[in-house]
Amino acid sequence: MTSKTLLLSMTLLLAAGGLTAAPYRAKLLHYGWDHTNAFELAERYRQMEETMPFDGVMFPLTNEGISTFYIWDANPWPDNVFDNALASLKTCEFRRFTDNFVMTWISPGPVDWLDDNAWRVIASKFGIVARVARQAGLKGICFDSEPYANFRWNYREDCGRSFEDVKVIARSRGRAIMTAIAAEYPDMTFMAFWLISFGRCRAGQKDWGLYATFIDGLWDAVPPEMTVIDASESGYALVNQTGALRTSLNIRHDYANFVSPENRAKYRRQCNAGFGIYLDPYVYPGWINRDGTQLVTLFHYLNNLLYSADQYVWFYSEKHRMFSLNNPNNTWEAKLPGLDKTLRMAMHPEDFLEELERKGAEGAVPNRWPNPTFEMKEAGKDDTADTSFTQVAALPRGYSAWFPGKEDHSLAAVVDGRLELQNGIVVIVSLPVKGGGVYSITVPFHGAPAARLQGRVGFQTTSGAWIEQENTMVELQGETANDRKLHLLIGPAPDNAKMIILVDRGGDSKLGPVSFDHPTVFCMDDLIPQTTSYK
Question: What is the Cα gyration radius of the chain?
């Protein structure tokens, strides 16, 4: 499991060398109606990697009418059925597409739960797919359990067996399939669009009533070195961080209660949470935010999912293509200009800091730090300082304070356009944030080489409860030891919250005061193009 904090990055953009400490983010995988196959991938992967902002792709293996999309029947495959596809995949030298998966569907069906031969054939097919995935260097198999054809995960009352009897059989079918997979590729990543996260599979005898039992059988045979991902399609509807985090926790922990007791410890060790996100609603009229903010909304939703998932988010679309050699006018980028940049920003926000800082310096994006030029309070005018903290007359308008010890209002003053701090005071500013937004915070400071300034950032609800506190800002060296700055890239911000920034003097007080000037808070949202109409 990956430990989550709101700290995306302690981004070290050093003056010499541009060293960057990248943040943790789940990886983004491509899937959709424009999926490729192994042969097309081998022909085009260089162009696809250059054009498509993804960490991997999901695709079927195919050969003369045989496809892993149609694995779910009693027609056996020769062991060498995908040898040509494997040979094509072995020619690929992926640089960006590091995490690729073979797609499988439960089509064409129908398959009777009581048909031993059919299920033996299906298990053998999964073994073939697992072997090709391993030999091709793929991450593993993706299992789409949604019925697109004739198979259903239900119990038929006319089958001549009781529901409890068929549950035992369904569990054995899952066990046989996973046994075949594990025999060929035990340390693969097995990902499914729905596992226990699909609530209807726990509803009883009808519809998906045997799916939970089938999943339990999968867990019976999952080897200890395998990673299982419930890459929930419910991500389509998770519009805020709270819902995404709650679902992630449910997948990794709570849903273990829906497998047998003997599988629960294994489930909690090896089951990770993932999500899907569906592009089409951000484009077509009447779905999401037709006020020009489709891309900003997509950025926020995707941020929440990439932050909440353990390893992967899969990106799904239908109407157009992410990559096209022959018709660039039919790409999603042509239909929704700025999409490519939006996806890249969500995946790797640190790559866009230079552009953000440059546009901020030019005034093309707003600085959200309250009163960065330290204008002093004026009599009769409202002070924008956070009244939950101490107000200090010597501080500029919009600034509050906290005193770890005895209050001394002489510990801060504006001197020559800089806010000068002595030991013993913490200066505080607060500002509203957008849920899902990513923020870059910079505080240039000055003082003796051994003197320090410290910065911490937290979030509070509008009612004052702390959500996340004391993400420490990183000290970066400037051109001289007296010319340094604190920096933090943080997000996605929680919904209905404010950001609290705390700045205080560190080091030996005998080294003299430390001052700071021109602090900035820039929001990544301001780099995202406004889209006012569907093309």
Answer: 27
